[in-house]
Amino acid sequence: MNYKPIDWADERLGIAKFSRKSLNKIFPDHWSFMLGEIAMYSFFVLLGTGVFLTLFFVPSSADTIYHGSYAPLDGHVVSQAYASTLNLSFNVRAGLVMRQMHHWAANVFVAAIVVHLLRIFFTGAFRKPREINWLVGSLLLMMAILEGFLGYSLPDDLISGTGIRIAYSITLSIPVVGSYLASFLFGGQFPGNSIIPRFYTIHILLIPALMAGLLGAHLAIMWHQKHTQYKGKGRTENNVVGVAMWPAYALQAGGFFFLTAAVLAALGGLVQINPIWMYGQYIPYKVSYAVQPDWYMGWLDGALRLFPSWEITGFGHMIPTIFFPAVLLPGVTFGLLMAWPWIERWFTKDYEVHNLLDNPRDNAWRTSIGVGVMAFYMVLFFASSTDVLANAFSVSLNFVLWAFRVLIFVIPPVAAYVAYKVAREASSAPTVGKPRKAMVVFRSTEGEYSSEESGPRREVDLKFSALHGNEPKPLPEEAKLHGIEADGGVTQENSALIGSSVAAAKPQEIEERPGEGSGKYPVSRGTPGAGGGLFSPHNRKMPRRRKDSEEEK
Amino acid sequence: MSSSTPEFDELDQESLVRTSERRFENVVGISFALSLLATIGLGVVYWQGGQTQVEGALLFVTLGGLGFGIVAWGKYLVPQGPYVQDREELKSPASEREVFIESFERGSNLIERRSFLAKLLGVSVAAFGVITLFPFIRSLGPQPKKMLYVTNWKKGSALVRSDGTKVRASDLEIGGILTVFPEGHAGGAISQTVLIRPSFQDIVTKPGRESWGPQGYLAYSKVCTHAGCPVGLYQELTQQLLCPCHQSLFDVMTGANPVFGPAPRPLPQLPLEIDSQGYLRAQAGYDEPIGPGFWERA
After folding, report:
1. What is the predicted ipTM?
2. Superfamily assignment of B159-282 in CATH?
3. How far apart are the C-alpha atoms of A384 and A389, rounded to whole Å?
């Protein structure tokens, strides 16, 4: 390997110290830790496809006559925003794929953030010291929702235009400042000509820049504080157990970006979304039936439908009815969301640092509150389809509306109660009745079967490596830095150059490694457990490997 | 843990590792090769003019092949540990904190010693901050003033269709509906009005509105009093107007009172008259603000 670039950079920036730590950083491994990654990768896809779209989109509500390959609208007077969206969909190569990928990625982005948030909530990952990242994440969620709304408003089609009209009315409903705010935000009375250029600037510049900054902070804080981990063998509050950043985590996470992008590409290419040519241009006096916004606005739309027609007037002023479901409800929602770490602490009086995650069943109160709140927003979400449901089930709109007005009060407490009971019973199950120990059956490589009694059920770590007694241990390089003689006596001298330690492990050291050959390795793993794999001396005996080491000698 | 001899184990294990590694090497290789093929295909499709579905499918294989291969490489061909690393305590040692506070106070004392200058600086920066905010707020739009109270309807405004043609009293069949605007403002979002000619005798006129509906014509603001959507759906059978956004229902026959859903107020009614040439005109503008509520509205 050529060390010159490393020397060059290290002499100027001193990168080795930081990079060494980064390369050897340990990341706990669990599928639920990938939810945030899905969100981040969707964000990257949004940035990429979004830049492409800006090259063709014209953010103007000025009239133009459409002449493009979409025949039914040929010759119609439409806005430039609408016409340019049609053009980039039909007349720009790969334009429609990009546009649909962008829209799908936005939906997946918000969904991934929400599920990621639920994971953080139910496992108690927001507890000290991670309250700041909880706040940053909540801000990111709010911005993602706003950004999504602004984005789907830009094409100036009939459905999104109706959405903007509702947004204008909601702004108007804010007490004291509402009419000023609406006038300033929309550049006068609705609809005006300022909305699309303004939304465009906010959508492509202001919010993405803020989000990129917040995402950077989110990651930096996570990096600095180190990731949480689930309880398990060898895992304590004071350590991190998992895979090394380089190369395992880097490969897994990097590859996962491509997998996320692949799914978004498949959706963008194969599943139609927001076909604005079927809705038509936004015309203020036209409206279409069964108007539903993107999914993440559904709870607000549902709240607007369910909230009764109460309007408060007095002292020459009015608090319009939509203030309650469309301003107060989101305000309370995000306020409580952001305050949650402190609310919970107020009850638990828990000021400890937590790096081990809760199993949701072990914290029945939190789990039941979470499920109840989730149920509340789910009911609101489904309430945004009252008209569709009434049609689908051939019942009256009146019935559906009143059913939802009842369900919004019934379902959340019931869901919370059920969640509480289930959590309590699941949590106590291993200690109820006669404690049973699991028998773990092994098949040795000779084909011989044997069984071992495992510990109590709660302590069983289902990972093979853990079952086989492979205690987590430090990376060889890290061990050396701490003066521990790993891998049979590699000298401190050799560890000076990170990366050369593999070459430093001499073939004759194989015999000195005890405890590696239990013969019970699962075939599918491919690597012989802790400290093994390509770094282990066994692998160095393989033909192609031996060639490498001979060269290095 | 094992009863077999170490030598046997070692050999056996090595061959097992080798076979399994080979298998995963094949999987990774096939993934990358598929990805490469799909990329070439993508290039060809793009060159040929592009096709949305094929592009999406090929992009899926391209990206998916890369992703699957890289993840498989990272999961099955490199060591997974588990490795352990200590968490350093986030909290600084007490001595560091003390030195930090001392350093900070050493500096801040130097500033606070010239307290007048410091205050003046604070005031200057704050004033500048407030001043720079002004264009970002005030320049954005006009003050609302009477904007929310008036529409383009005036005394004598002729009713026109969206294409600007005037509406005659004989134009609408009984049971007909039309979206109308004040002459000169066809298509206006605020003045949009729905003109209906329901069956004559059932109308329950509100007090003071006896003369507003000549020949059974009724005109209501089309802007929903709930969230401002156009009240676009007319159910002739029940004589009701439905807002498709949040399903508010207004009863046309009783002055567009809200009878269902979240709308809080009736749709404002436009007083109509028929001029000597048979054209429909407004007797006056709306006598109340149209659309959803706002703070200043009593």
Report:
1. 0.91
2. Rieske [2Fe-2S] iron-sulphur domain (2.102.10.10)
3. 9
